[in-house]
Specification:
- This protein has one domain.
- It is about 35% helix and about 25% strand.
- The chain has three helices and five strands; from the N terminus they run ααβββαββ.
- Strands 1-2-3-4-5 form a five-stranded antiparallel sheet.
- The longest helix has 26 residues.
- The two termini are about 40 Å apart.
């Protein structure tokens, strides 16, 4: 009996420390996009594009002696998609990417922007914050959860 208990205590401790308590859900955040509010869904859509473009811009900067891309075309990326308009500007050699919906009618969030800090936040926390513009014109931060966190 003692042999059985001795391995269970460290296992239970390891599970608790890892956040795997077996309660079924480790947090109250939504598991998929259908559980998100409309503004969160809009931010997720824009956030995925922003994340990819910021990642590419940082990669470009790394392979061009610290010079960030002046345009999306330099990175081999189109500025227009069927649903979004994308822009990159450089602020003190730091690429800032903005993505907005082409047809913002009916959207809660119409555009968002982010810079390289989102890459670090996503890798450390599994989420990152973008600054977004609501349909009312108000600016507000919106959290985007990476696919791995869901």
């Amino acid at each position: 009996m003692i042999g059985q208990v001795s391995w269970r205590a460290p296992l239970a401790l390891a599970l608790v420390l890892a956040g795997c308590t077996g309660t079924g859900s480790s947090s109250s955040r939504p598991r998929n996009d259908s559980e998100l509010t409309p503004d969160q869904r809009d931010a997720q859509v824009l956030g995925r594009e922003i994340f990819e473009l910021v990642d590419r811009a940082i990669d470009y900067r790394g392979s061009h002696r610290g010079r960030p891309p002046a345009t999306l075309k330099q990175m081999g990326v189109e500025s227009l998609t069927t649903t979004t308009v994308r822009r990159v500007v450089n602020v003190q050699r730091e690429p800032v990417v903005t993505v907005r919906f082409r047809q913002p009618a009916g959207r809660e969030i119409v555009s968002c922007w982010g810079e390289s800090k989102i890459l670090e936040d996503a890798s450390v926390n599994g989420r990152y914050t973008l600054m977004c513009t609501a349909s009312s014109g108000a600016q507000r931060p919106m959290e985007v959860v990476t696919a791995e966190e869901r």
